[in-house]
Write a structure and sequence with these properties.
There is one protein chain. This protein is mainly beta. It contains no helices and 23 strands. It has strands at residues 2-5, 11-12, 16-24, 31-39, 44-49, 55-58, 62-70, 75-84, 88-98, 101-113, 117-121, 124-127, 131-140, 148-153, 159-164, 168-174, 182-190, 199-208, 212-216, 226-235, 243-248, 254-259, 263-269. The strands form 6 sheets. The protein has a 6-stranded mixed beta sheet with strand order 2-10-9-4-7-6, with no helix packed on it. A hairpin with a 5-residue loop joins strand 21 (243-248) and strand 22 (254-259). The chain is rod-shaped, with a radius of gyration of 39 Å.
């Protein structure tokens, strides 16, 4: 009797494994009423018993096949398909016996591991105030589509649970208006379960400065006249601008002007010595 399995390389939790028991009559005559018994470790769940015409007994962890007879030098086999339900190293022994032969045992070992996982995140570029989409991809070394939950920690310290379906999930976050330009990190963590190993990854959110348009009207005036200069500042993201700008006047003077709700103003007296013409 020879017992084997079809595992090559690494076996993972939830893998299907086939145990194959080859039985050969090495005796000098016909063997009859041959009982093949396979008692499985509790880590294995029986999915399918093959060679069903031989099966004489079955429960959750034990199968007995009754082979009516085998001629001298004749061989046959029985097999069953099982699922590994937890990680570890497990021994599995099969026994062959008949009324006219000695009992024979054969043991095989199966080592099953929890599946390593890998989280892939995207670096994101946006502006303060933007609502951003954060995609999360989770793969595993077994090549099985990952389904489970991960926890994302956002730059403001908020934790959110995100469902991953077939390896992909996403969440959204609005960057606070008061975030200064710069790089902010976020992290995603998966905790281990009976099947998968834990993993963690870090992504980056690059908060950019918001482009603004400064609008200043053309002004006409005479030497010696004081003229108003109206300044409008319009951010590209539609927000309201409140800050200071610097105005460089035609005579080279620089003036700081406060912009409130997008608008500010100053005035300038045109020097009497300025000749007619255009000045910026």
């Amino acid at each position: 009797m020879d017992k084997t399995h079809n595992v090559t390389g690494t076996a993972y939790v939830d893998d299907l494994i086939e145990f194959i028991i080859n039985v050969t009559n090495d005796g000098p005559s016909v063997a009859t009423d041959i009982n093949v018994t396979d008692i499985l470790d509790g880590a294995f769940e029986i999915i399918e018993v093959r060679n069903g015409t031989y099966v004489s007994y079955r429960d959750d962890h034990k199968v007995v096949w009754l082979i009516p007879s085998l001629a001298k030098s004749q061989s046959t086999y029985v097999s069953l398909l099982v699922k590994v339900t937890k990680a570890g190293t497990f021994n599995n022994t099969a026994t062959v016996e008949s009324p006219i032969s000695e009992t024979v045992n054969d043991t095989v070992n199966v080592t099953a591991e929890e599946i390593p996982t890998n989280i892939t995140l995207t670096n994101i570029t946006a502006h303060a105030g933007d609502e951003i989409d954060i995609p999360i991809n989770v793969s595993d070394d077994a090549g099985i589509p990952f389904n489970g939950n991960v926890v994302i920690t956002l730059p403001d310290g908020t934790n959110k649970t995100v469902e991953i379906v077939n390896g992909t999930g996403n969440t959204s976050w609005t960057i606070p208006e008061d975030y200064m330009p710069g790089n902010y990190s976020y992290s995603v963590k998966y905790d281990a379960d009976y099947k998968y190993l834990p993993s963690q990854a870090t992504g980056n959110i690059n908060v950019l400065k918001v482009p603004v348009d400064i609008i200043v009207a053309d002004i006409e005036g005479k030497p010696g006249e004081t003229v108003p200069i109206i300044i409008n500042v319009v951010p590209d993201d539609g927000s309201i601008f409140n800050d200071n700008v610097t105005v460089k006047l035609p005579d080279g003077t620089e003036v700081t002007v406060e912009i409130v709700n997008g608008t500010g103003n100053t005035s300038w007296t045109i020097p009497k010595g300025f000749a007619p013409g255009n000045y910026t």
